[in-house]
Design brief:
alpha+beta; Glutaredoxin; four-stranded mixed sheet; 5 helices; oxidoreductase; Thioredoxin_domain
Length: 128
């Protein structure tokens, strides 16, 4: 019976640690909200668009990437960044988890979304 309690305590501690880590990661990325994107990444210029950061081996990314490609094909302005090939972009933006979407309005970072996001939420953010 003690082993069962110890196991449950370990699982609860790991769950709490995971939540704390997610909060720290999101807080680090959100530091760039309000910053002019071209000041961080000179090659990324434009008014209203999104930057999608993903990894080909990330399961949520594999599910989200076709939807992102569909958004772009419909005319929604977006850039896709494979962090396994271009980690510098993620590092400069403070992104430590994929998938992540950086929403840019009037050239400034408006918001950073992390995790499995609905493509409609990206469009809503850009249209606000």
């Amino acid at each position: 019976m003690k082993i069962l309690y110890i196991g449950a305590a370990i699982i609860a501690a790991l769950f709490i640690l995971k939540i704390i880590l997610q909060i720290v990661i999101l807080k680090k990325a959100k530091k760039n909200v309000g910053v002019k994107l071209s000041d961080i990444l000179p090659d990324f210029r434009g008014k209203d668009f999104f930057v999608y950061l993903y990894s080909p081996s990330c399961t949520p990314c594999i599910r989200l990437t076709p939807h992102i490609k569909n958004l772009i094909s419909k005319g929604v302005r977006g850039k896709m960044v494979d962090v396994t090939k271009n980690m510098e972009v993620a590092r400069k933006l403070g992104i430590m988890a994929t998938p992540s979407v950086v929403i840019v309005k009037d050239g400034y970072i408006k918001d950073i979304l992390m995790g499995l996001i609905k493509p409609e939420d990206i469009e809503k953010q850009l249209n606000q």
